[in-house]
Amino acid sequence: MPWYAFLLAPFALIFRIITGIRNWLFDRQILKSSKSPIPTLVVGNLSVGGTGKTPMVEFLIQNLGPELRIASLSRGYGRKTKGFLEASSKSSPSEIGDEPLQIYEKFNGKVPVFVGEDRVSALEKIAAISADLGLVVLDDAFQHRKLKADFYCLLTPYSSTFSDDFLLPMGRLRESRSGASRSDMVVVTKCPETLSLEQRKQVANKLRKYLQADTPVFFSKVGYGKPCPMDHQEPFSEAVILLSGLADDRPFADYSHRKFRVLDRLAFPDHHDYTTADLAKISRSWEKHRGQKPVLLTTEKDAVKLKSLANQGFLGEIPIFVLPIEAQFDSEDKQMLLSYIREKFRKK
């Protein structure tokens, strides 16, 4: 945290009062929360962005999907539309958002993906058109208190857990640390490749001060797959130009520097909408290193936007590869996490 952050403490206090009053009103049912007609599981966080929610949503769909039919619901951050929509093969990032489209394409359209700002209303509409659904996984709805979900999975990154963070604008928290007490489980994401039992205990003990006594804490890391061509036949090259629009691109960049020969790194803000000026910058970088036959290596989230641009004739002959990402758990944590979720829903 920069030294000047403490100058923002008065504003963080005001923010705490506002969010605290709001949560108090919901906790005492002065402001009402509604249940969904379909079982719901929320994947969320206390901080703004960069905790790995989408990979966790995909993990849950992948591992719980064989048992029951699952759908995904989010507000569709960054889209240019409003209201309730369902993803289709004709959807674009501007219509439903980059992350919902990523999920839809990752599961080849076999998982229903919906967007809607009002989650309660959206869930009622989903129930009306998809009566056979067994579970809806909601991306980033931890602060959506109008919905009383059946299960809350709270994510926090290893490098900046909520126990060490502060409220906006002093830090990155959307609400106070005590909000973590609403969670049914906590997953510490983006952990180092090697994490000792003692390190796990230290992190878990810091978090448990804000959790219910029986709330489990699990640990995951970022896993990457083999780069896949976006929409071309050129072979992959170890010489890469990195392109990302992420809240935290450090894991993506660190992995790429270890595995490939990085010639350039083009980093943009989270959910960035690429402009003609950005495309010109990408083209200049590729032309600069053209003699080394580079490829553009990007994330799954950015790929859905780049694919849309490529279909419009932009980026020309630049070969673009996508680096798949997933949330990975050790075998024991994975088994315990999934068993815990199944048991919670069996009881409910």
Q: If you had to describe this structure to a student in words, what would you say it looks like?
A:
- With 348 residues, this protein is an alpha/beta fold.
- It folds into two domains: 3-222 and 329-347, 3-Layer(aba) Sandwich (Rossmann fold); 226-323.
- Helix content is 34%, strand content 20%.
- It is built from ten helices and 15 strands.
- The strands form three sheets. It has an eight-stranded mixed beta sheet with strand order 3-4-2-5-1-6-7-8, with helices on both faces. A five-stranded mixed beta sheet has the order 10-14-13-11-12, with helices on both faces.
- Helix 4 (98-106) crosses helix 9 (300-311).
- It is globular and about 65 Å long.
- The two termini are 41 Å apart.
- The model has no long low-confidence stretch (mean pLDDT 93).
